[in-house]
């Protein structure tokens, strides 16, 4: 099922016992974080804080904090099936003749039905505030050493100053005062590319921020989409219904009509300010650095708006399940380029960009090395600090099995690859900012020609006949 807005999703969560309302008064500074952290790590429900001290606006957290809730957010019981469908829509097939062109028409028609459409007005315009004041909203201070309060679940809308192409990304925003925030654009992200182009032109970059869109649109802002794919088109595909947009009041941008809160404004190309530290999804504080400043020129919102937030910190946190959705949805697209890949796992402790594990149908000597280098050249997987490759029969979702294979199957000199390249901005262990070393581990069985001169041993596996016998007689053993 698809959700028209955040409120419909909250209603469904509540009906299914997946949301808990908290009536007791709570503080937006640290207290909501501590409550949410305990609930996330216990696999608990989404939390709706009705009574935040000093504010009239409620806060909702942990919307995506279990895999079941992540599936519910995207309206599916099978994330892999969505990935296969997405792959079928996006794979580049060139029609060879008239019949092939005719067969492609239904696919094109289906895609066109997901294209976002602009409507005259929407609920996000119910209240228009031309004298904006961010302090009205219960923006959270999450961790004790955070530099201040941070907006943690924003959908940041920009347009390429040269092409006009839209981007929607999710970048944290430190609230400096009633009308300004930081804009934590990582250098590798499209929003930062738009900022650099505007800076080169000496122009302000218009920016709009949506808080509290429908869950598919929130997820789409985090997705590592192929170059040129509109996040809102992807959201429409997930929803099976186009996202409705309205034009902003003070900037030339369109935003989700059914969002809870819209912040309109601009980033000045010559202005930067010290932003951070911030307790990040790595489980460590990301360091303070200089980032662009977002100036708010107008706020629009629904009557009685809901403020959404996510808490990040030491895993497992809510973002782990967003990462798991990405893992399943984008596996078929990875297979388009690397068809030998069987499965992939982003271990939770690796916070997506620090470790990726792949199983492959190995076909020749050096095959695992080829996969390792290919991963380092593929989109956002290029930031992977550790790439582990195992054979097809290994369950990569079982990290105990993976580490057993790694610890037993490798000869360090032969099977470990060291390289250098770009790293995620949040990697604090690299000696230089966003650049450092990477390691690939070939934990596959070694073939002749891979430098292993001895016979490779077989796995210990009980015979099927004995397993079946013991299964049949198990009750007799009294165990």
Task: Describe what is shown at a glance.
Helices cover 29% and strands 24% of the residues.
Q: Secondary-structure map with pairings?
A:
Layout: H1 6-15, E1 19-22, H2 31-41, E2 46-49, E3 59-61, H3 67-73, H4 79-90, H5 98-112, E4 117-118, E5 127-129, E6 150-151, E7 154-159, E8 166-169, E9 173-174, E10 180-182, H6 190-201, E11 205-211, H7 215-220, H8 231-239, E12 244-247, E13 254-256, E14 261-275, E15 278-279, E16 285-286, E17 289-301, E18 307-308, H9 318-337, E19 341-345, E20 355-360, H10 367-375, E21 386-391, H11 399-409, H12 412-415, E22 416-422, E23 435-442, H13 464-477
Parallel strand pairs: 1-2, 3-18, 4-12, 20-21, 21-23
Antiparallel strand pairs: 2-3, 5-17, 6-9, 7-8, 7-11, 10-17, 11-14, 12-13, 14-17, 15-16, 19-20, 22-23
Helix pairs in contact: 4-9
Fraction in helix: 25-40%
Which structural class is indicated by helix and strand composition?
A: alpha+beta
- Note the total helix count: 13
Largest sheet data: 7 strands, antiparallel
Mean pLDDT: 93
The end-to-end span amounts to 45 Å
Q: What is the C-alpha radius of gyration, as a whole number of Å?
A: 24 Å
**Which blocks of ≥5 consecutive residues have pLDDT under 50?**
none
> Which architecture name of the largest domain does CATH use?
Roll
Oligomer state equals: single chain
Approximate strand percentage: 15-25%
Specify the CATH class of the largest domain: Mainly Beta
CATH superfamily of the largest domain: Electron Transport, Fmn-binding Protein, Chain A
How many strands in all?
Answer: 23
Shape field: globular
Question: What is the number of domains?
Answer: 2
At CATH level 3, the topology of the largest domain is: Pnp Oxidase, Chain A
